Amino acid sequence: MTQISNTAEMRKFLEEYDGPSVRIMEVCGTHTHEIFRQGIRNFLSPKINLISGPGCPVCVTPAAYIDEAVYLALEKGCTITTFGDLVRVPGNVKSLQQARAEGGKVKVVYSPIDAEKYAKDHPEEQVVFLSVGFETTTPSDVIAVKNAIRDGIDNFALLTANKTMPGAYEAMASSTDAYLYPGHVHAIIGTKLCKDMAEKGVSGTIAGFTGEELLTALSVTVMKLSEGKPFFVNAYPRVVTDEGSPAACALVDKFLKPCDAEWRGIGMIPSSGVELKDEYAAYDARKKHDIPKMDYERKTGCKCGLVLQGKIKPNECPLFGKACNPDHPIGACMVSDEGACSAFYMYGGQS
Ligand code: SF4
């Protein structure tokens, strides 16, 4: 493999690459935005195709989940606590923003731990935290439940839609030649999954988030692809170790169990989510507040599912920049700060 050692050389290599065309999926929404923000797409060789994948937690949360949250706010009188992005995501009937305008109590918090603290300070309210995200953020959702048990409060619950990456990596493998694996996910779960994927023929590189780390990961990926054999490289060793964070994994395993999960626009991926174990049902909003089954998906013309699978680019959606824009989002990918459609819109993406 050619050795290149500095940023200018990496840029030159990626600019002048003239080998076989390659498709690289940046799984993580933060990678998508950073690659745009650093201007990396602007100089990549046309033989290097970057595909935005399903790693934005808000984007993959189905509309029916928003319907459940709206139901809790308007029909059950719960206080919904959530990160800001989810408030604007359209449900099948309305968004949480609209529910709030109709009198629902929807409070933006910075963390699930803050949500639990709010519940402790407001015992007269039934507080529900919208628990979405991947392996990176799930441990803090679990800590909130642990704190509720410690504090002896019974007015706090999670509405879970937490996802896990292994099922998604398998499901998207045919859309890409190699993954740019999300560094923060693998800081928690370690590298074993990536090694196993390479043994199954799926290649990838764990990437960090600075411009230099992204250039390194992309250069390594393109060079390794040209060798023609499945590979795995950890290009973020300052943060990602082989074992990850056993303490965080043990905490999650104590409270949560695997479940099938619905991904917006993609459908059900077996064992690609986690939910609270039966012994913690008192903190599971679906069980505690008896939410009726909601799995309907209204047709809107949104192509988020195809975008999240890397089958089209955001600007190939007929609604992009016209009916759908950040002021009037039709799909979650245009709402979230990590969404591919929002990144394309914000940075004028065309490649
Ligand atoms: S541009 Fe809007 S409608 Fe089209 S896929 Fe993206 S979020 Fe959905």
Features of the shown structure:
single chain; 351 residues; Rossmann fold; 39% helix; 19% strand; globular; binds iron/sulfur cluster
CATH fourth-tier homologous superfamily of the largest domain: HypD, alpha/beta domain 2
Question: Rg from C-alpha positions?
Answer: 21 Å
Instruction: Classify the secondary structure makeup into a structural class.
Output: alpha/beta
The total count of strands amounts to 11
Q: Quick one: biggest sheet?
A: 5 strands, parallel
Could you please say which CATH topology of the largest domain applies here?
Rossmann fold
- What is the topology, as strand order, of the major beta sheet? 2-1-7-8-9
Strand content: 15-25%
Catalogue the unreliable spans. none
Structure explained in plain terms:
- By secondary structure, the protein is α/β, with parallel strands linked by helices.
- It has 3 domains: 7-56 and 165-234, HypD, alpha/beta domain 1 (Rossmann fold, 3-Layer(aba) Sandwich), CATH 3.40.50.11750; 63-161 and 247-254 and 263-288, HypD, alpha/beta domain 2 (Rossmann fold), CATH 3.40.50; 305-341, no CATH class.
- 39% of the residues lie in helices and 19% in strands.
- It has helices spanning 7-16, 29-37, 40-43, 63-74, 84-88, 96-101, 112-121, 138-151, 165-172, 183-189, 192-199, 211-227, 246-255, 285-288, 304-308, 340-347; strands at 22-28, 48-55, 79-82, 105-108, 127-133, 156-162, 178-182, 203-207, 232-234, 256-263, 267-276.
- Strands 2-1-7-8-9 form a 5-stranded parallel beta sheet, sandwiched between helices.
- A hairpin with a 3-residue loop joins strand 10 (256-263) and strand 11.
- Helix 7 (112-121) runs parallel beside helix 8.
- Bound molecules: iron/sulfur cluster.
- Iron/sulfur cluster is lined by residues 302-304, 307, 314, 317, 319-320, 324, 330-331, 333-334, 341.
